[in-house]
Amino acid sequence: MAGNTTSPGNNQQRGLKKIETGVSSTKNSKLILGILLISLDILMLVIAFAIGYMARMYVPIFAIPEGQPPLSEYIPTVILQVITVVFVFYFSRLYHQRRAVSRIDYSRNILGAVTIGTVLASGLQELLFKNSSLEIDYPRGMFFYAWVASAVLVVMGRETHRIIQSSLRQRGIARDNLLLVGAGRTVRDIAQRIQNNPELGYEIVGVVSDKVKPKGHMSGTPVLGLYHELPGIIDNYNIEQVIIALPDAKRTEIVEIVTLCQRGHVDIKVYPDIFAHMAGDMNVDDLGGMPLLTVRDITLRGWKLSLKRGMDFFISLFGLIFLSPVMLLIALLIRLESQGSPFYSQVRMGLDGRPFPMIKFRSMRIDAEVGGPGWTVKDDPRITQMGRLLRKTELDEIPQIVNVLIGQMSLVGPRPERPVYVRQFKEQIPRYMERHREKAGMTGWAQVNGLRGDTSITERTSYDLWYVENWSLWLDIKIIIRTIWMVVVRKNENAY
Fold it and tell me: What distance separates the 2 farthest-apart alpha carbons in the chain?
């Protein structure tokens, strides 16, 4: 029996050997994925140029040429353009590893890099090939078609690469060894988020805490040691990423831990403290040479406010015109299913806490609130069959275009709540009323992140406050695109 006993030291050695083997495999996988990404970019750019060449001859947007040189004569131009765009991608950090980046933001970055690279290639062609055997006319029609095709095809190639990479990560391949530093709820939340999203590419090796628990585990994750043991743990376990989750720690303690983690090529991330989280993107102002941090700045004012209102007005006006037949059909179907008006007006709290009547398609029975207002929950018996379909597809919100048109709401903003709930939430949730510094929206940052229906109000409020303090026209456009996509693919599981 004694011969079958395995010592803890042997188990640790086996674990370390397994991690070393995994690191080697991970490095090879990352190298292959990196080569694949560059290869896909080059392939897409070459195909895009060929499409541009063909489109110039057959697409009548620009004048169709009577005679065009053979494609083979454009090979030097293709090579120059591919090299230039790939270099722009590199200096734009598009070959650096990114996690949890929005596809919309990523596509915008690619469009910008492709635009810069294509323009640079056109200019370089004039400088390098002029008065040489390689000189050839690069007409604006071909330039335009090649540019459009390059942007579209590179995005498609990148999405293909993302699917492959995500699939490998879900199988435990091409992940980074991650070490969590800290204790308590914050570490548990981070670990849970990583475990629920394997496509992020993290492999949690363990936790380093200020004190080792008796069982040596924290929420199922092994505790590897104490803070002063960090250098040895990072070296022994081949740690590639460190997340320091000590939001209540003193600055000196954070600096000391960061210093201990600075080993080789380890990436170090620090979870923000309460002040940094509250401040969001802080601005630095000057007071006679003394720097001051602006914690709460209202982003939407002046010309930005006019720009947002202009977008709201024109989109809601055209939306109302084009969606009128759909609205008429929905109203008719509601009326056929149950008696009463197909529309439902409910008082909600908007800008500066002022009440306004928000219009929706009626999705509940007429007597749904005879006993007083109630929070909508999953499989709510008060919802009609037509109403369930409308809520699932979010078509019940279409009449709010009228609220947007007359200026009571915006297309994008914090979703409005009823006064009875606002009075309740403002007593329970810090900074809740600050979400009313902007107009309520038909959709919002919280909603496109899955916080709709019977979800955490505290978490929803944090998303609303982030939107209020970080508004941009591009952010609104991104939220609108994501909302449309979620409606089309019916991705919002909390829509009920």
Answer: 90
Q: What is the distance, to the nearest Å, from the Cα of residue 23 to the centroid of all Cα atoms in its chain?
A: 28
Instruction: Tell me how crowded residue 165 is: count the other CB atoms within 10 A of its CB.
Output: 20
Domains of the chain: 14-170 (no CATH), 176-271 (3.40.50.720), 303-489 (no CATH)
Write out the two tokens for 409: 């709401």
pLDDT surpassing 60 at residue 23: no
| Model confidence pTM above 0.85 | no
End-to-end Cα separation, the chain, in angstroms: 60
Q: Which of 208-217, 219-228, 321-330, 414-423 has the lowest mean pLDDT?
A: 208-217
Identify the top-confidence range among 263-272, 290-299, 472-481. Answer: 472-481
The C-alpha atoms of residue 193 and residue 178 are separated, in whole angstroms, by 13
- Residues 493 and 297: their CA atoms lie apart, in Å, by 34
The two structure tokens encoding residue 212 = 């080792």
* Residue pair 421/341 in contact by the 8 Å Cβ criterion: no
